[in-house]
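Project outcomes to date are best conveyed with an example. Our students and postdoctoral researchers have been running inverse folding experiments weekly, and each run begins with a structure described purely in C-alpha cells. The record below, which covers 79 residues, was selected by the lab manager from last quarter's runs and is presented without edits.
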C-alpha cells in the first residue's frame, strides 16, 4: 500500500491551501483529472518559490489495475 503524502502550500489569496498527494489505491486516471492535478502541481511549486520551468514529476502510484493504457496516457498528457 502506498504511503499517503501531502503537500500544503500557503495561498496568497488567503483561501484554503492547495494540496497535492497520492490518491488512494485503485484511483482511475482521466484527462480532466490530469489537467486538475497538473494545474495544482504548477500552483504548488510556484507558491513555494520554485522558478518557472522547473521539472515536476507525475507519480502514477496505485492506479486502478483495470485502467486502460489510453486513460493513463490521457491523464499523463493533460497534466
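After processing, the design step wrote out the following sequence:
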Amino acid at each position: 500500500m502506498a504511503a499517503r503524502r501531502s503537500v500544503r502550500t500557503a495561498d496568497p489569496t488567503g483561501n484554503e491551501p492547495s494540496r497535492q498527494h497520492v490518491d488512494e489505491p485503485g484511483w482511475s486516471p482521466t484527462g480532466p483529472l490530469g489537467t486538475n492535478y497538473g494545474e495544482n502541481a504548477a500552483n504548488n511549486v510556484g507558491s513555494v518559490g520554485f522558478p518557472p520551468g522547473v521539472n515536476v514529476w507525475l507519480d502514477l502510484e496505485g492506479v486502478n489495475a483495470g485502467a486502460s493504457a489510453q486513460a493513463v496516457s490521457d491523464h499523463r498528457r493533460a497534466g
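Residues 1-11 have pLDDT under 50 and may be disordered. Residues 26-48+63-79 form one domain. The training component of this project remains on track.
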